[in-house]
Amino acid sequence: MALQELPSAMRQLANRHARSTAVAIGQFPRRYASGQAAAVQEVSEDLQDLEPQSSLSTRFSPKKAAGFDPVKRAEGRKIELPSSRYQYRSPRYYRGPLHPHQPPPTSDPASRQFVPGPFSHTRLEQTFQSTIASDLMTLGYAHRPPGTVDIPKSDRLRTWDDSSPYHKNRPKRGPRGPEGVLRLIERDISWRNIPKIQGVTVHSMVKGAMDDSAYLHIAGMALQAVTGVKPKVFKATQGVASFGIRQGMPISLTCTLRNNQAYEFVDKCINLVLPKLKDWEGVEGTTGDSSGNISFGFNRDGALLFPEIEVNYDMYPPKMIPGFHVTIHTSATSDRHARLLLSAMGLPFHGKLVD
């Protein structure tokens, strides 16, 4: 008759009898397979791989614990880590190249200026790296045979005629004209200086803010939705009575986009907004500042075509949404190379192209 078929009282008596019999012959009951395997004289083939003694049967020895000294053990190590490994802290301020404490590079996670990411590139930037960059090198290639002699160019700065003793050792003068600013010299495109987008500036002059500050708040909400950057408010530096502008009046907003945000904004303008404009020929070829920066603008109707405003059109009063100017900053040294870059990305130009 099996033990499970007995009543509960009979099973308890049977268990007590078996336990007292095991104590009498010197065998203590163990609840692990290794102990039971050791108690069996004839070990089966299935239990030969089991260890003869379990780790649970080990006893705590106070004598061994009393002789353990962690400090002495650490001092006895022959190979140790440098003391400056965990004691180094990057300096808060940059104190020059000769200071003994130099901050780590910004790519190091220990740097105070470390910014993680970007972990993925935008679609336009991936297209630039895979296709546009190599095409620009081909389009801008200028062959120079070996032994070509460079034509000497005149000095860009004007020298003094030494008609006065005060002209001695004076620095050279700038170019003629009211600006007096030297423009960048166009460099040939090579693998070292392929033009690329460095940033985008979105600027809006809110005329309605002169009478009602609500226009400025609506314009700030619209620009922040379009660019994803909180706009910066600029005040008038001087008053203009004919336009009703007083000094210190908040009058304009500016957003500056860098890195992935700049590429995403340009991609959005080229592929989503500009194709929806009616009777739009393209960006004028005369735009640019002769330093590789191209500008164009959106009026109020063009600003309404951005998907961020179009999806929440009821949130903005239609007559209070302003237009804005967009300036694309590139690393090109001339407007010709900047137009070449933006044309490869899909931005059309029309009219006479001015170098």
TrEMBL record:
Biased composition (Low complexity): 82-97
Biased composition (Polar residues): 51-60
A Pfam family per the record: Ribosomal_L5_C
Matching InterPro entries: Ribosomal_uL5, Ribosomal_uL5_C, Ribosomal_uL5_dom_sf, Ribosomal_uL5_N
Entry keyword Ribonucleoprotein: yes
GO cellular component: ribonucleoprotein complex; ribosome
Domain Large ribosomal subunit protein uL5 C-terminal: 250-349
GO BP annotations listed: translation
Stated family: Belongs to the universal ribosomal protein uL5 family.
Record-given protein name: Large ribosomal subunit protein uL5m
Organism this protein belongs to: Venustampulla echinocandica
